[in-house]
């Protein structure tokens, strides 16, 4: 190969190993199994869904290109054990799978927050997949990729954001039909500003539902401020 061809190949390889990121920041994990742990969040840009309650619409567009090496170096700078790859919808960028594996190889406790609309089969099995099942109230119920449920393991979690009693009844039916509580941990969250947390808690207690109630800790502490 000529020097020009070598340079072109190197450039192409560098381009292939890039991801578009909205932000990387250190905060406390606000939900799911690792709630409360100091965590580095790697927020990828872009999402094919438009849930009506989305609190990270600022990640739909823009962002900056980062190489995998630069991402790993920035994560290491924070010197914590937990890393959460989120979005947007991180799996919308194919190189996300490579990033997840690289983070696991580096010894981090890695979680992935995904909408449940894209195939999770290729995710490194060391990653804890937090799969958001979209309720009717989200406006994106039709985007659920139900085949993902067959891939869940005890290492994973599924999350329902509940907007109303109708959403709650729908989610209960999904949990029962797929016996999700026997596959992995199931999380129910109230949609902020749409359903009072106490109301959802009372429903879960009354029904002895085999799910874990959660409130998004970061909303209580920082009111959805970017970078927290």
Automatic annotation (TrEMBL):
Mg(2+) binds at residue 56. S-adenosyl-L-methionine binds at residues 53-55, 88. It comes from the Bacteria. [4Fe-4S] cluster binds at residues 47, 51, 54. SUPFAM superfamilies: Radical SAM enzymes (SSF102114). Its cofactor is [4Fe-4S] cluster; S-adenosyl-L-methionine; Mg(2+). Binds 1 [4Fe-4S] cluster. The cluster is coordinated with 3 cysteines and an exchangeable S-adenosyl-L-methionine. Residues 34-228 form the Radical SAM core domain. The keyword Magnesium applies. Pathway: Purine metabolism; 7-cyano-7-deazaguanine biosynthesis. It catalyses: 6-carboxy-5,6,7,8-tetrahydropterin + H(+) = 7-carboxy-7-carbaguanine + NH4(+). Catalyzes the complex heterocyclic radical-mediated conversion of 6-carboxy-5,6,7,8-tetrahydropterin (CPH4) to 7-carboxy-7-deazaguanine (CDG), a step common to the biosynthetic pathways of all 7-deazapurine-containing compounds. Belongs to the radical SAM superfamily. 7-carboxy-7-deazaguanine synthase family. This is 7-carboxy-7-deazaguanine synthase.
